[in-house]
Amino acid sequence: MTIAAPRLPAALAARTPFFYGWAVLACLCCAGFARQGPAVSTLSVFVEPLTRDFGWSRTALSGAVSLGGILAAIISPRIGVFLDRAGSRLVLCYAVLTTGVALLALSLTSSLAMFYVLFCVARMNWASPFELGIYGAVNNWFVARRQFATSVATLAQMAGLVTMPILAELAMLRWSWRAGWLVIGALTLVVGFLPTWLLLVRRPEDVGLHPDGVKHEPDASGSAGVVREPEPDFTRAQALRTPAFWLMLAYTALVYPIQAGISLHMAPHLIEHGIDPAIVATIVSTYSLMSAAASLACGFLPRRLPIRYPMAAIGVFLTVSPLLMRGITSPAEAYLAAALFGFGVGGILTLLPIAWADYFGRASFGAIRGVALSAQVVSQAVGPMVSGALRDWTGDYRLSLTVFAMFGALSVVAALCSRPPR
To answer: Do 173 and 46 touch, CB atoms closer than 8 A?
Structure first.
């Protein structure tokens, strides 16, 4: 069964004087910006006021992130199959609407159970429908320019990661943490819904176009100024039988606990080391800015460079930065550690979607990525729980940071071994 393109986007695609994929990319940037309301970096600025007002433990708050990830792991394979059939428009519109409403409702939080229900819905969307919808559309519309387009889409998400915590913190300083949820919920709905609903198209072939804007299907030598390698075309069953799939899965399972575990607990860790909360908010934003810088840098990597080498380099950043965070004694050291960590996070957010599409192709990207995403979001769920539990057990975050550094070192090995499947 195939889903026809909506009439308005189809008509626009036929009339625009430029490749319509750039309009699609702009829509995805809006959705990616709106995605960041339930990101762990945003939640991190709410940790201190929520624990102060309600007396909840760090482990309890981390559990909401983890449970949302587990729910995303359950639905990801089904969402991926639906994405291949229906496209990103319906998936992303659902994600934006339900996330925005859940974030607005979090301003009414009166109990831990209520917080769990609302945040888990938003976090489930963040981890699965948003991820699959954004990168599924990017990989359908771009092949030769995939690194650049993915970099731009990820950069927009980094802009959301920079903006959301700052706006939430400003709202809390002016009013309360309840106002913080209202601000980011409204921003999610305003920025994310209309462009996605009105302009998104499943894939270029639905409106008589080809990826990258070429006028006809190019041969391997390239035409219309675009170099195109023959695309791989794996089904989900075929992909599961390749060593590359399992090595990529291992890499994913190693790097994402670091990303989620440190992101959520970075702000309280720094506050415990005597750094002023206002400065902590700027340090968290520095991490997001460096993530954006890494995303931008990934867009200019040579297309013929095997992607496993940049992935291994990112693993090095995720090994060094937790070790630096263990011994922070000043804001300057915190800025450095956060910058290195942010560069590593921006790298994995940009490179992994490219790697899955490059290794296994566009046709079954949703189905293949949906399976891999289950492992990813479980890993993201494990990270905050490890951080919170070890902190509650030992009284600080040093042990969890050591564990994360070990994960980073193992990820370097997994990346170097993950060669493209034949």
So the answer is: no
User: What b/e string do you get for 98-132 counting C-beta neighbours within 10 Å, with b at 16 or more?
Assistant: ebbbbbbbbbebeebeebbbbbbbbbbbbbbbbbb
Q: Is the predicted pLDDT of residue 317 greater than 90, yes or no?
A: yes
pLDDT at 330: 80
In a domain, 230, yes or no: no
Average pLDDT, the chain: 83
Number of structural domains in the chain: 1
96 and 193 Cβ atoms separated by less than 8 Å: yes
CATH of the domain at 65: 1.20.1250.20
CA distances from 98 to 119, 120, 124, 136, 352 (A): 11, 11, 10, 20, 26
Residue ranges making up the domain that contains 390? 20-207+237-417
Q: Return the higher-pLDDT residue of 214 and 61.
A: 61
CA distance 53 to 45: 14
Q: Are 180 and 171 in contact (CB under 8 A)?
A: yes
Residue 122 located in a structural domain: yes
Task: Judge whether 178 and 104 are in contact, CB under 8 Å.
Answer: no
